[in-house]
Design brief:
The protein has helices spanning 9-17, 29-34, 47-54, 74-78, 94-107, 124-129, 145-151, 192-196, 215-232; strands spanning 4-7, 22-27, 43-44, 62-66, 84-89, 111-115, 139-142, 157-162, 178-184, 200-202. The strands form 2 sheets. It has a 6-stranded parallel sheet with strand order 7-6-5-9-8-10. Helix 5 (94-107) runs parallel beside helix 9. By secondary structure, the chain is of the alpha/beta class. The relative contact order is 0.16. It is built from 9 helices and 10 strands. 33% of the residues lie in helices and 21% in strands. Strand 6 (111-115), helix 6 and strand 7 (139-142) form a beta-alpha-beta unit. The chain folds into 2 domains: 4-66, no CATH class; 74-232, SPOUT methyltransferase, trefoil knot domain (Alpha/beta knot, 3-Layer(aba) Sandwich). The protein is elongated, with a radius of gyration of 19 Å.
């Protein structure tokens, strides 16, 4: 089994609280003195060594070796009663994936679906961008997103394409049943076949001069509207 690394205060702390095994923790002397939550047996090393282990200087004095990320089966997420999910269509930017994962976990979503190919995977950079949220959020990789959305169709589970060209504002849809929000990469948006595989569109009206929100912000708008409806309804 090949070990992976996570780095930064929040990612290391959440890895220690999360689902995968932490094999070893390295830290700077300053971090060792300032983090009383660190387990016994941490190895104090130089900043240069931490940068080498992390592959980045953005480690905040903490690096952990962990077991590979535990992806889950997509069907496990889709079969849940009143599931609240986000699906990303070939989002390749690690920072965007991390931002969406953080929003999903913060909103209490059941999980996140990403494409196996032409997509960012869960890496140390994604973990860092998510502030460690990926350690608690269930994430599944799918081979063909459009096919999966078609196969998943059933009463009580509805998919909504985040589409700037749609006619119905996002807050006019009913998200109290099972819901999958489907978002594409910034710039290109959803691929046509993925868009056509969704049951409806969810459009976020823009009032300013920019044409769209980044994918993390769009996910937040949609998810917390669903949370509001479920709470009030």
């Amino acid at each position: 089994m090949t070990a992976e690394v996570v780095y930064g205060t929040h990612p290391v702390r959440e890895a220690l609280r999360g689902r995968r095994q932490v094999l070893r923790v390295y830290c700077s002397d300053r971090a060792a003195r300032g983090a009383d939550w660190l387990p016994a047996g941490v190895e104090v090393v130089s900043a240069q060594r931490l940068s080498e282990l992390a592959g980045s200087e953005d480690h905040q004095g903490l690096v952990a070796e962990v077991t590979p990320y535990p992806y889950v089966d997509a069907n496990r997420l889709l079969e849940r009663d009143r599931a609240l999910l986000v699906a990303l269509d070939e989002v390749t930017d690690p920072h965007n994936l991390g931002a969406v994962a953080r929003v999903c976990e913060g909103a209490g979503a059941d999980g996140l679906l990403i494409t196996r190919r032409r997509s960012a995977a869960v890496t140390a950079a994604v973990c860092r961008a998510s502030a460690g949220a990926v350690e608690h959020l269930e994430i599944a990789q799918v081979e063909n997103l459009a096919d999966m959305l078609i196969r998943a169709r059933r009463p009580g589970l509805w998919s909504y394409a985040a589409d700037a060209e749609g006619d119905l504002p996002y807050d006019r849809n009913d998200y109290r049943d099972g819901t999958v929000f489907v978002l594409g990469a910034e710039g290109r948006g959803l691929r046509p076949r993925v868009r056509d595989s969704c049951d409806a569109a969810a459009t976020i009206p823009m009032r300013g001069r920019v044409e769209s929100l980044n994918v993390g912000t769009a996910a937040a708008v949609l998810l917390f509207e669903a949370v509001r409806q479920r709470r009030d309804g």
